[in-house]
Amino acid sequence: MKKWLLLSVLAGITFGIVSAYYTVDYIAEFFTVKNGAWETNLLAGSEKADIYTRAAIALNALFALNKSEAVYFIAYTDSNFNPLRLHCDYRIEGGKLPARWWSITVYGSDLFLIPNEYDIYAVTSESVRWDDGKWVVKLSQKYQDGNWIPLRGEGNFILVLRLYNPDKTVYESPQSIELPKIILEGCR
Amino acid sequence: MKKYIVAFAISAIIAHVAFVAIFPKLIMVLYFYTTTSAGYEENKIYHVPPINSSYRKVVLPGPNLLYSFCIYDISEKPLLIEAKVPENTYWSVSFYDSLTNNFFTINDRDVKDVARILLVKGDADIKGAIVVRAEDEHGLILFRTFIPDKNVIPELDALRQQWKCEQTETYLFD
Questions:
Q1: A contact test, residue of B2, B3, B17, B19 with most A CBs within 10 A
Q2: CATH C-level class of A64-187
């Protein structure tokens, strides 16, 4: 009798831990704010974060800054909500963003930078070429003139938009600020 | 049968919540363990080379930032951080506790010339330094410097070699 009780408890503990590991991201998702293809969790780095957000940040964005210092928007899809794929070409269009400076970085699905012979992984508000207050960045496996981040390999990728020293509007109403559009141009 | 189901459910719920709650701590302990095992000492500053795709230690590394870090242990003595702040570029120092919370950040808008920060546990009122109170004796300090242009990396790198993160005595500030 006791043996079965003990086994029930052990099975419960195992189930609890495994379910925790696999549900952290899904539950933390409830605390994210969406703006088109971009999403952010304003509790990243905060002592006020719920346990699921804190666990998800530890797993996916360790050492994130709190929102007054930087806000992180992540895109897993283009602006039509199709997954970002490494064998496709994209155009990101944007303008001035409400922050002191910003960067857009391409990461593989393992959350690390994708190797390329040009050593180009990101654009920033300082490095991007502006045209009358607007900018366009190309993402492609093929060399592109102008603002370009090379894609390499197969599978999915993600984009991270970091806004450093953001204006208050960014974290007070992240769902309504104007963020860059991610436009699919074609696939190979 | 009912009591086995109840035992399973209660232990599952407790284990689930406990694991989620301690997961950040596990990640930090793992990070501290792997970092110190690789020869990095506590209470000492280290400068990460410019980030490229070969960097695989912490997820989502920023390729436009120069990172420096200091794993702290203030169980015995406070920690003094001294850094000449780079001009005309973003710079920040962020403090993380062992639960990954970013409990304090200061940047180049808050401090000019030289940042002198004292990390203490408990209360302290010390002149001549920005006092940061940590509730946790262990954690990480992360320095970020924006690279506006790759050509300035040598200059920024030379500057950060002078930064300090070391144990100190509070009476030195009296």
A1: B19
A2: mainly beta
